Amino acid sequence: MRWHRVRRRYIGWLSLSLMSFTALMLLITYETRWVHPEIHAYFSQSGNLTGQQLATRSRRYLEESLGILLEEGDSEAVAQRARFQIELGYSLFDIGVYRNEYACTVPSLQRLDGLHDTLSRGIVPSPALLSQDLLAPIRCLTEIEMDQLDRRARVTNQFVEETRRHQTQVLMGSLAIYLLGLGFWGMHERRRRQADRATRESLRWMAQALRDPLTGIGNRTALHDDIDAQAGRSLGLILIDIDYFKPYNDALGHPDGDRLLRELVALIAKALGGEARLYRMGGDEFAVLLPCDSAGTLERSCALVVDQVRRAALSHPDHPAGPHVTLSVGGVQFIAACEAFTEAYAAADQALYWVKAQGRDGWQTGRVMPMDRVDSP
Description:
Oligomer: single chain
Catalytic activity: 2 GTP = 3',3'-c-di-GMP + 2 diphosphate
Largest sheet: 6 strands, mixed
GO molecular function: diguanylate cyclase activity
Keywords: Membrane, Transmembrane, Transmembrane helix
Distance between the termini: 55 Å
């Protein structure tokens, strides 16, 4: 239950960290979409900012027409050339922006209309009239140029300031979201580590719950779990009892008794090899579970356990039948299943007590129903 709570928090912090980085990407995308139209408006050839360019071109055409009329003399060809330049200048001058925003535009266009009509008749006006008809529109166009330049400068400065402000906002927002994301990620990592620790702690407690704290081997619960995990397999169950263990404890004390239990576990494990699993059933009683495909395998295993302890010659000062520690062993072969285990345990226990009744220090195998054979020392 605790692990599930930690897991939910872990997923929650992970989601928050991903959301923060997603917000960062959305902010950058928004600012990019804001900057693009502003750049387009500034550098495109649309809007009032182009007015300065049109006024400049119109003024140049009018200045060229003035130069033609003043320098090339009085002739119909000169008048036609000047009229053409005036038409070009007029077309660029006569736009709605200039008419609506500059008071000098309409009077200047009227003067140009009159001059155009005069030149159409092949007449070149006097320099005084030219000064009135052309210089006034040229001055008007110059004012428009200057004003448009001022507008461009203001728009440019505004664009620069807006861009700087938005860049600062993007930088600060990105930094805040980035730090927030790192914070969420750090919390997520902490929760993940807590989840890992909780899992390891749960596994450790589960392992401890299945082990005997004195000897480190499995307990009764572990024996049942291992049988359930091997359902359907042919197994051998061996029950082991230390002969006269209480007198041993009484003579040497419980610390020596505990040491003897650990030594016997090591000897049994050595005798049976790696595939056998040992369990302490309580007190001085042990069980062994091992793969067993025949009665001969079970018999050899029982004999190995008894012989290994005999060869070890562990001292037993109060053994009524000799100076060394001995074992009574009973075994049975069965097919792993919950129901079969109860009968198998009873059969192995019956074989063990048969050995005890015969004087101990020996082994006996049994069947799940009747017993098989006897081998007493």
